[in-house]
Structures are given as C-alpha cells and as structure tokens.
Design a protein that fits this description.
six-stranded mixed β-sheet; 20 strands
Length: about 375
C-alpha cells in the first residue's frame, strides 16, 4: 500500500520548550488515522507542521513520497479543517466550495461540475444556493469538508472539527465522517482529545502524551491491550488499583492491594518481585455476584453505594476495604439492581486476563486528585 504521509523523527521546539519530541509515523493511502491526547500534548503543533504553518526544528515530513519541508502551506497537497470551520458567511454553499478552485484560476462549467459532484458525495445535492446561515451544524461540517475535498488533497487534516457541536450531533457526525471518508477514499489525519471519536472512526490511533507517542495501534488493540499506564487510563474507562507485585516460582503472579487483599494478575513479566504496580480493570470486565467459575476469578466483597443511571450505560458505584475506594461496575441490561440499599454487601469478580498491569507511575488519575 502506498504511503500518503510519512513523518520521520519530527521535533518542534519553542525556545527551551519541546512541544513535539521525535515523533515518527506512517499513514497509508485512503486510511483514517487519528492522533488522540489531552490538551497541550502537542497534537495541534504536529498537525500544523504537516500543514506547513510551522517548520519542524528537526525531522522530515513526506507526502506521497515527496519531502515537503520548506514548502509553503498553499503548495502542499493537504487541506486543514479547523474546529470553527471558517466558512464565509457572505457566500452561499456553492461559492464557499468553489472558493479554492477559483483561487487556482479554474472557471465556468469545470468549477460548476466539480462543486455539484462534491455536493453529491457529501450528501448535500441541491444545496448550492443555500446561505451558510440556513444550514445546521452537521450541514456546515459537510460543506467545510466539501470545500477541502474539491481541491483533491492527498491528505485532509482535521483539527477537532466536532468540538463545537452539541453532544447528540457530535455522536451523529462521528458515524457520518467515518462513512464519508470511506466513500471518498481520501486519507484523513484527525486530532482529538475525545477517545470515543478516535475509537469509532479510525483505522489506527496514536495516543500522544507530552509531545511523544505512547502507542500507535488499532482501536481494538489500544482498548484491550494498552501499552502503558497512561494509555490504559486515557482510552476508555478503567478502575485503577495500586499495590505490590508478588512473584513466586510455579505460582500465579499476585498483586497485594493497599488493603492487604491479594488478586491474581497476568502479563506482569515486565515487573520485578515486590515492585510497586498499578492494576487496571474495565467496568465491563467485572461480574456482579458471580455464580460460577469462582476458582478462575478474582473476587472482592464490596459495599453498594449508588446506581449511576445512564440508560444502556448505567453502572454501579461500590466501595471496598477500609480505604472505601470507589469502583465502577457496568450494570447488565437484564438486571437493574433496584433492590440494593446503601452499604449492602455484594461480590464482584473478574478474570485475571481481563486486567492490565504496569509499574506504578505515581501519577494520579483525575478522580484521585
């Protein structure tokens, strides 16, 4: 497969501050690649270097095999869509989409043909005479994409384009963007701090922290096999436990939790005996009052605290041990647990293979601050 984009050991410094630190990745032609990370991690700086608005301090950027370092933004075969779209309110839909073509001195029926074809591709046929103020948020999004795609870029760069939309529309547009990218076949490089956006839409996702990539992988592997404590905490929901790893020859690895309770773990080969460790268990990996397989499961006695009702995403909030550490457990759809009262004791269990174990970083999660 031909590479649409290749970023090689790119670094960007602003004085003594390193915003992007030796980042490398490749994006195959026609793929949807997302860069996921918290605010300030360097993802927008990286995107702007690809677009040509910043020059890297070190490293190379190639688009379809051609090195674009030193090439002005308007001469690069890329287009960048910002969160606020930057549509021209004084122009109608057709004029907005045709703007870049006219800047390239294309005229007449050629422009009309390209605009009408692009409106068909983004699902807005017949909208060419609509004013921007007449469009919904999702329609404006599609016009902004059409205006970029009509110029036939090798790579379309998207800088948190759904961030300004309300939640319901954002959920709808995630599906629309994925379908649109698959239909038009243009390579998308998308940055976001929303892990749901990245997981739903992307072929591959890079998780970024402090100017570096922690892991590049498929959404499924990021979720089920995180490569670091940061990825485990940032991608999806997780319950975090801390303790001490105990290794004995011929026996399962164990973690002794803060309250002295021991639980079995797998995939702890990178840790040493008696080393401080972090254990991550996803809410959906936990079973409430398990009836069978108790020998294969880790089981904790916990106290019920409340139900966090959210329709199909409802969860139980429970606490365990003297520390009264809070644990989130996904609630099965076929059992509402309405009969539970505060401080009722129940059991939760999980398979050791359903957890992730890493060296203790000492970094607190948001709920621990």
């Amino acid at each position: 497969m031909e590479l649409a984009l290749s970023v090689k050991n790119v670094t960007k410094k602003f004085g003594d501050y390193t915003a992007v630190d030796q980042v490398s990745f490749d994006v195959e032609d026609g793929k949807f690649f997302s860069i996921l990370g918290p605010s300030g991690c360097g993802k927008t700086t990286l995107l702007r270097m690809i677009a040509g608005f910043y020059e890297p301090t070190l490293g190379d950027i190639e688009i379809r095999g051609k090195n674009v370092i030193g090439l002005e933004p308007n001469r690069r075969p890329v287009n960048l869509i910002f969160q606020h779209l930057a549509l021209f309110p004084m122009m109608n839909v057709k004029e907005n989409i045709a703007f870049g073509l006219r800047r390239r001195n294309e005229k007449g029926k050629i422009v009309d043909k390209k605009v009408f074809e692009m409106l068909e591709r983004v699902g807005l046929p017949g909208y060419e005479k609509h004013e921007i103020s007449q469009l919904s948020g999702g329609q404006k999004q599609r016009v902004a994409i059409a205006r970029s795609l009509v110029l036939e870029p090798s790579v379309l760069l998207l800088d948190e384009p759904l961030g300004a939309l309300d939640l319901k529309l954002r959920e709808h547009m995630k599906v629309e963007l994925k379908e649109l990218q698959a239909q038009v076949g243009t390579t998308f490089v998308y940055i976001t701090h929303d892990q749901s956006e990245a997981l739903v839409m992307s072929d591959h996702v890079a998780v970024m922290k402090d100017g570096k990539f922690e892991q590049i992988d498929s959404p499924q592997n990021l979720y089920h096999t995180p490569a670091s404590s940061f990825v485990a905490q940032f991608v999806g929901n997780n319950n975090k436990f801390t303790g001490t790893l105990l290794k004995e020859p011929g026996k399962d690895d164990m973690i002794q939790l803060e309250d002295g309770i021991k639980v079995r773990v797998t995939k702890a080969d990178q840790l040493e005996n008696r080393e401080k460790a972090e254990l991550f268990i996803r809410p959906e990996a936990m079973i409430i009052n398990p009836k069978t397989g108790l020998d294969e499961l880790n089981v904790l006695d916990v106290k019920f605290k409340s139900i966090l009702f959210d329709g199909g995403n409802s969860r139980l909030l429970v606490t365990y041990g003297q520390s009264k550490k809070e644990i989130i457990v996904s609630l099965p759809l076929n059992n509402r647990y309405d009969n539970l009262s505060s401080s009722d004791t129940i059991k939760i269990g999980w398979s050791p293979e359903g957890s992730a174990c890493f060296k203790d970083t000492g970094i607190k999660t948001y709920d621990e601050l």
